[in-house]
Amino acid sequence: MTVTLVFLAVMMALFGGWLFSHSINVRPWEAQGAGAPRSQLPPALTAPRVGLAVFLAVATSLFALTISAYLMRQEMGHDWRPLTVPGLLWWNSVCLVLGSVALQSAWQAARRDNAARLRRDLLLGGGFTIVFILGQALAWWQLQARGIYLAANPANAFFFLLTALHVLHLLGGLFAWSRSLFRLQRGATPREMLPSVELCALYWHFLLLVWGILFALLLTT
Amino acid sequence: MAEPGHHGVPHAQAGEFDNVELVHPKSFIGKYVWSQDAKVIAIQYGLTAIAIGLVALVLSILMRLQLGFPNTFALIDPSSYLQYVTMHGMIMVVYLLTALFLGAFGNYLIPLMCGARDMAFPYLNMLSYWFYLAAVLILVASFFVPGGATGAGWTLYPPQAISPGTPGIDGGILLMLASLGVFIAGFTMGGLNYVVTVLQARTRGMTLMRLPLTIWGIFMATVMALLAFPALLVAILMMLCDMLLGTSFFMPEMLNLGEQSTHAGGSPLLYQHLFWFFGHPEVYIVALPAFGIVSDILATHARKNIFGYRMMVWAIIIIGVLSFVVWAHHMFISGMNPYFGFLFATTTLIIAVPTAIKVYNWVLTLWRGNIRMTVPMLFAIGFIFTFVNGGLSGLFLGNVTVDVPLADTYFVVGHFHMVMAVAPVLVVFGAMYHWYPKITGRMLDDTLGKIHFWVTFLGTYAIFYPMHFMGFAGVPRRYYGYGETAYIPDSIQTLNAFMSVAAIIVALVQLVFFYNLVRSYFRGREAGPNPWQATTLEWQTEHTPPRHGNFGAELPVVYRWAYDYGVPGAKHDFIPQNMPPDEVEKVDPMSQEAAQGRLPT
User: Fold this and answer.
1) Tens of pLDDT along B365-409?
2) Residue B264 and residue A79: Cβ atoms within 8 Å?
């Protein structure tokens, strides 16, 4: 549980610090004017961005707990036989990095009102992600073919569980991505697309980071 | 998101915080079924939660019938008894209390009390309810599959939960896990809304330190739930893998009814860690909104500002944070390292400090207040008593050495029913009596309310207080029958019969409450916009009940905190949050009331 507790401690410290700055030297019982508008949160924090941030906190909690379970199960049982991670995962990782880069570029294109580049980069971003998912499926198939079955060992089971959870999150992202693409096809301007493209890009960066941590965990344990 | 100044409400002025574009449906179905209005969603959540809660209430009566009058009812056999125990616990904790406090009260009160037109993401909010309804229906379906609902206990500990011999192994456990998964997905959608709305959609002047404590309680509980429910989700997914795919996350090697299982090496203890990492914060997910609501009811009906507002806010935060580092006190008898147990006993007892601060502050709020013994006030005061009782027995169980002999006895049942069943339910009732006039525009009947309160309050003590003594006598919990157990005296059986009769009476008196709800809806006294003379924004709406969009053409502007009751020098004994300082009527300095420092109500 150490991993989860560290994550929670960081979350709570941030939250507590922010709250502290809003409650210290405040006398709530004194009636005053309504105060300057927008004094609460910086304008960059729009509701969709905060919504995404909260969702990312939930997803981080989910992954942190699964990693905690991974490390605890490794210690608790005496039947852990580490599996050799398929080399294909390196290629898949490259695809995911490229997908993230493409979506970052799409975000930039939307900001600069460049419709052609936005369409190209959105398609590239989604395309690389689909290749990544297919690659993960291929890696699963390779493991099965090598006789490394899900139920045979907890290390295998966790490998499948962690990668599946990550792919499920990507599929959720692809659902949002396909809706954006659909809107673009129906003639939405890059400016109108900006909020959803930026959320997609941020979500992809997050999932890339999660994948980096998961991959490092699988390689080292 | 709408552009600033464009609310979708005719003539709405630009809010200081961008608000949502409201969908105004024309048809009945759009308004009341597929509604995106947080208030309608709140009522949908509330009615669904109460309906499934009634199922759980009936299950508890069935259990009491068996315990009070053993082997009298052919309907109740040992398997079905275990199913009742399991489903009663799970429904009450997750599907009733969590859904009521966050889904129903959260949806109704957050936009209104923060001065927002609706939740930040209304569509997601609507989906949240339909996911919740689906989860409830899946859960109910588990009663009807072959083998019935699961009987693994509400904690669903493996290996028992998915091993042959446990009731509901055929389909019940699968539906239970599926239902929880759907519930968590739905809750995450709702929870995102509650958090973002509190952070983003507060009206101008509604600083964090001017929020009513109800909102603080619901907000912190939502944050905790968003971080804790993933632990349950991970545990469910891993258990499903063990069950369906043959993995051994939790399942050890064992003999099942004489046959060697296919699992090997799994750790049931790992499940317990994950479950209680969710399970303990869950206690406070239920308790924190109750704390908040009680604070507001006490201040309003005692006509006094809440004592130590900032301390109350920080106590909520600290309780929330600490509740994540106490989970292993549910596992003292799992064979853990004694030092580990000592650590968790310490953190557990530390939680008593912020909790005691809250209790003292509630009592000090009442001190020299102008107390009006309304029905919501009765329930709020009843809550303080019950919560203190349950909290004190928690001090026993928090200590490892005392917990070891008392765990798995009725002492634990008595403790948690006092602290997280009766206490929050009293708040639910108090809150319903308090906000019903806003929701329907009519008052609930006072006499019926008082009958409801006294029978419920005294009745629950008659049920749960004796359980502590049964626990000291060593009577084990979860048992269908005790047979000829030498150390259990006959008097325990008499006590059991008494508790069962009390339980039936308490269950029946809830009918009075439902009758009151229905009758008052049609025939109740007209409430007017602000029957309790309260300060918070929901009582200052243009219409009662508030229409879609909550406020009139302009969003309210907030100038003060939520607790300006009995302000010295003011003519009236309450000043609404949205009243500018220069509009507050001052009392004539020569008048006698002002000289006494007390104002007429």
Assistant:
1) 999 999 999 999 999 999 999 999 999 999 999 999 999 999 999
2) yes
Q: Which of A65, A70, A162, A179 to mutate to test the interface with B (most CBs of B within 10 A)?
A: A65
Cα-flanking dihedrals φ and ψ of residue B535, to 5°?
-95, -20
Residue B260 lies in a domain: no
B597: confidence class by pLDDT, cuts 50, 70, 90: low
| A125 close to A102: Cβ distance less than 8 angstroms | yes
The answer to whether the Cβ–Cβ distance between A150 and B558 falls below 8 Å is: no
- Assess if residue B184 is contained within a domain: yes
CATH number of A47-220: 1.20.120.80
Instruction: Mark yes or no for CB contact B200/A16 under 8 Å.
Output: no
pTM of the model: 0.93
Find the mean pLDDT for residues A181-186: 91
Based on the structure, what is the number of domains in chain B? Answer: 1
Tell me the nearest-neighbour CA distance from B270 into chain A, angstroms.
Answer: 7
| Residue B20, in any domain of the structure | no
Q: Does B334 touch chain A (CB under 8 A)?
A: no
> Do B89 and B412 contact (CB within 8 A), yes or no?
no
Say if residues B42 and B119 touch (Cβ distance below 8 Å): no
Q: Write out chain A residues lying below 8 Å of B575, CB-based.
A: 31
Distances (CA, A) of B146 to B170, B175, B270: 7, 12, 30
CB within 8 Å of chain A, chain B residues 169-198: 188, 191-192, 195-196
Q: Which domain holds residue B451?
A: 28-252+265-556
CATH code of the domain covering residue B130? 1.20.210.10
Amino acid at B116: A
Convert the pLDDT of each residue in A42-91 to its tens digit.
777 888 999 999 999 999 999 999 999 999 999 887 888 888 889 999 99
B257 lies in some domain: no
Q: What are the residues whose beta carbons fall under 8 Å from the beta carbon of B144, sequence distance 6 or more?
A: none
